[in-house]
Amino acid sequence: MSALDIINATLDDDYAPTAEEISLVVGTLSNDEKKWRDRHGMLKHEGYELRPRLRPGWTPSWHESGADPMECEDGEVLPVGRFADQTKPSF
């Protein structure tokens, strides 16, 4: 079952996703998140850093730790496509 199949299945009132299905959905970048990931190099060049989930090569932290994806910082899906949290480190 794909992440999209799982998301569509959750529209049924009696559907309860498994932990593996939740991990798959949360561990899949949305199209908006992919757009931010693809801008990472340009933003980094300007001195900004996106959160780990939006960086190229990201792998979900819970794959190694075994933690609940919903309790991990990188388990939080970007809520609004036009905005991404970023920091500009001071040197």
Q: How many individual β-strands?
A: 2
- Please report the distance between the alpha carbons of the first and last residues: 46 Å
Structural class: mainly alpha
- Rg over C-alpha atoms, rounded to the nearest angstrom: 15 Å
Number of helices: 5
Strand order of the largest sheet: 1-2
Task: Give the low-pLDDT segments.
Answer: none
- Could you say which overall geometry the principal axes of the C-alpha atoms support? elongated
* Average pLDDT level: 83
Provide the β-strand percentage band. Answer: under 5%
H/E element string?
HHHHEHE
Domain tally: 1
- Share of helical residues: 25-40%
The largest sheet, given as strand count, sense and whether it forms a barrel, is:
2 strands, antiparallel
How would you sum up this structure, described in words?
- Helix 1 crosses helix 2.
- The longest helix has 8 residues.
- The protein has one domain.
- With 91 residues, the chain is mainly alpha-helical.
Task: Produce a short descriptive summary.
This protein is mainly alpha-helical.
Layout of helices and strands:
Blueprint: H1 3-9, H2 19-26, H3 31-38, H4 40-45, E1 49-50, H5 62-65, E2 86-87
Antiparallel strand pairs: 1-2
Features:
single chain; 91 residues; mainly alpha; two-stranded antiparallel ribbon; 5 helices; elongated
